[in-house]
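Friendly challenge for the regulars: who can give me the structure tokens for this chain first? No prize, just bragging rights.
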Amino acid sequence: MGIIEDIPSIQAGDADKCENLFSYRAWPIFMISFSRLFFISIFERAFQNYIYFDQGVSESMLGLISSAPLIAYIFGPILGHFITRKLGIRNSIILSAICTPLLVGAQMLYFDPVYLISIRVLSGLLLGVFWPNCYNLLSRWQSVSSDDKSNKNFRHFNFSWNIGFISGLLIGYLWAFSLDEYVAMTFAFIISFLLPLFSLFLKKESELNHVNKNLLNKNDDLMLKSNAKPQVQQNSNNKMIAYPILFSWVALLIYAASKSVFRFSYPVFLKTSGSPSYFTYLIQLSMQVGQLAGLTWSNSMKFANKKKSVFGSLTMILISSIAIILVQDVVYISIISASIGLFVGLIQGTSLKIMIDYGAAENTKKYSTINEILKGIGFGLTPIAAGFIAEINIYGSFVFLIILGSSALLTLVYISQRKKMNVH
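First reply, four minutes later:
Bragging rights claimed.
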């Protein structure tokens, strides 16, 4: 893949003719998103299967170990904010990218739970440096891009990390099926060094700040010469700010909690039924393909349909949870779990786009930071709760999800009624 240079402008008309005033290199973000999810999807599934099926940790301890990086991720974006202020976006991403393979390898050396939790906490803190800065770059690019270019970047970003996740699960399944889980972890560790390699191609932040100023000055001159009135950028390019930001936050929490319950509970169902552990790769692969379809569908939806997709998806998650409790058969549970990805993808697509539009409209990274904190809460706390509930009754996890999902649905309906969502 060659280096792709994009040269967007901040308004239509004469400003579109300005060349070489601002350019950003988008492909490194797409490649580090792909490579991170590629190796982490192999490693995490193999790691959790290995300590659960081979090392024999309990369900509650599995929940604690699995959740450790995500609990730390609640605080990671706050730490990442201070690191980014000192080092800048590019250097912060590079720092996270270099340290990540080292921490991945450290988890393969010793399987004492306290040691593993400590290493995974550090991984979660570094994750808080990585993803908020990726979203921050998307928002900053959006503020100087056309509507089409902004949607293209957002679509390519979602596609890149999802394809990485899907490819990793498929290859992880082949490794685990033909060899064993530890070999799959070793392969993931080797591949993880692609992350720091691609991060070195990110453009320097000084270039972005410098040309941004030049672009704005040049654009002002063009408007004065043509006696044109300034256009309000957010009207065309940040439509989703018509949604209250609270809508995004509640949707994001239930997205993370729903996916966590289904992803955590399925290995327990397999172990209880005596089925092989490698089936977890196939089910999670199906979930991720569905999530990619949901994200892609959400990105192409008309504005008015995005809210409906969230309500419809959350309703289907609740129905699926009830069905699992009633059926209690591993074959049907597999089918239901495999299909849940579409619904979480639709919810995630809407919540993520609201967050990015708010960040672009207000030229701030606070929304991406809050977004990742909430994601850490949803993905971090849910497996811990599900782990302790599973030791009593695995189906209790879905009772927990039904209560949580119903509360989220009522909250979203209330938020929608409080503020009518129209494009201004």
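The first strand starts at residue 5 and ends at 6. The radius of gyration is 22 Å. Your move, everyone else.
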